[in-house]
Amino acid sequence: MKKYTYTEKKDTRSGFGAGLLAAGKKNPEVVALCADLVGSLKMQDFINEFPDRFIQMGIAEANMIGVAAGLTIGGKIPFTGTFANFSTGRVYDQIRQSVAYSDKNVKICASHAGLTLGEDGATHQILEDIGLMKMLPGMTVINPCDYNQTKAATEAIAEFHGPVYLRFGRPVVPIFTAPDQKFEIGKAWMVNEGADVSIFATGHLVWEAILAGEKLAEEGIDVEIINIHTIKPLDEEAVLKSARKTGCVVTCEEHNRYGGLGEVLRNYCLLTLLPQWNLLQLTILLGKVVSQKN
Amino acid sequence: MTLNNTDLKRMASQVRRDILRMVYECQSGHPGGSLGCTDYLTALYFKIMKHDPSFNMDGKGEDIFFLSNGHISPVFYSILARSGYFDIAELKTFRKINSRVQGHPTTHEGLPGIRIASGSLGQGMSVAIGAALAKKMNKDHSLVFSLHGDGELQEGQNWEAAMFAPFNKVDNLISAVDVNGQQIDGPTDKVLGLLDLHEKFSAFGWDVMHADGNDMEGIVKALEEAKDRSGKGKPVMILMKTEMGKGVDFMEGSHKWHGVAPNEQQLAEALGQLEETYGDF
């Protein structure tokens, strides 16, 4: 098992804030919109640097999505910021019609996604957002794993033309990816090569997958860990190669089992790999990972 | 193409014929609101707006228009085709499979003149505001126009947008509401009353005007005045009184023709009331 260490923990939302500032410096068309959550979305540095390129929307998310769609018509690259819950479910029809179906270059950036949000409770811990967004036509869905990867992803989506859903969060998590990494949309990252089981992890749970891999290594299980930071479009080649090699697939994410990475991989693997799978092996291993974590 | 008031009326007659023939052809669509908004859109595209039918999505340096109540697509398509955005022959394909001229406007088929999908109501004002803000950021002094149904104002997003635009001095936006007092289930007063729209938009901070949307001279004058009132710190709202089904006597003033196509006999009767001026498609 490859050794991953870290010297610092930080929230992925701060990676977004840093990436937004960097993207803004690189491209004068980058603009930011926020629905009364500037502090939570870490947008203040961008606002300080580019006050004329920031639009405070107030607590009005539907209008924010529509205004962002309109801004693209004049050539702007709008980044909208609010919590994941209000970035997706609350404004689904606005995104569907005015952004996705209209092919508008809007970057929907969502903090406080998933269970790791913690204290705010169930109303805010959206577990359906990946599923909602991946179904939309032309929508790219990205869920980076640490501060550095979130910063790199934010810069990368500014250079990519098309609607994007970028998902990140509030808790501090270890920074274990390179600060100068190039983020390739749709290209999975091989965290650790192994032979017995493939763990496909996304977002904050990539670090948890590494911890699980270390424990399993002590038991003699050789774990392959792959970071699926881009859920749509899926790096099918990476998935297929690893699943064929190990014959056993586990997914790690903080999302409802319906609609998330797990469903994406299950559907893909069912179509391509089912005859080679050892489902019993998968169930036992999944149980082991869960029990050890608890 | 810029027309004088006499020719604007002749063009409106032709557009109304297009609307009826499109809806008849596929036995589907929304003639009522389309007929009611014909004079406004004719004035806008053939007199008021500076626009380029060779069509650039970004609309830089030209006036642009957003249709929020996308179900009145027949009038929008006819106006765009008659303005030279695409061939009028394409109007024949309205609502048919594989057509670019879909039931509600979309962009992904690449139909020139359409900058945003609409149909799910209440979204167009926000989009128009965004486009207007982009113009300001780009130091582009052209204008943004938008049209909304009165029933559509029951959608909450409109009021988020209505609050935002004056607060942020989006004064390069001229919106209009088609006040015909009708919606699918009946008169707006019976379905969900809008009460005093002048008071409401004024209270939100708009510069509110009134116009008779079915009087060509009146609507041209109102739009010209709205242009004069733009750039003064407030978005302009034209509350435009229209008659649903205007131009066809048996369709006028009722919600019954909101989304119903005429049969052959009704079409003939309706076309008999509207002169063919610029040639049917």
Automatic annotation (TrEMBL), chain B:
Keyword RNA-binding attributed: no
Domain of life according to the entry: Bacteria
Domain Transketolase N-terminal: 10-269
Cross-referenced SUPFAM superfamilies: Thiamin diphosphate-binding fold (THDP-binding) (SSF52518)
Keyword Protein biosynthesis part of the UniProt annotation: no
Cofactors named for this entry: thiamine diphosphate
Pfam family, one: Transketolase_N
Listed InterPro entries: THDP-binding, Transketolase_N
Family: Belongs to the transketolase family.
Protein name: Transketolase
Species of the source: Pedobacter psychrophilus
Native organism taxonomy: Bacteria, Pseudomonadati, Bacteroidota, Sphingobacteriia, Sphingobacteriales
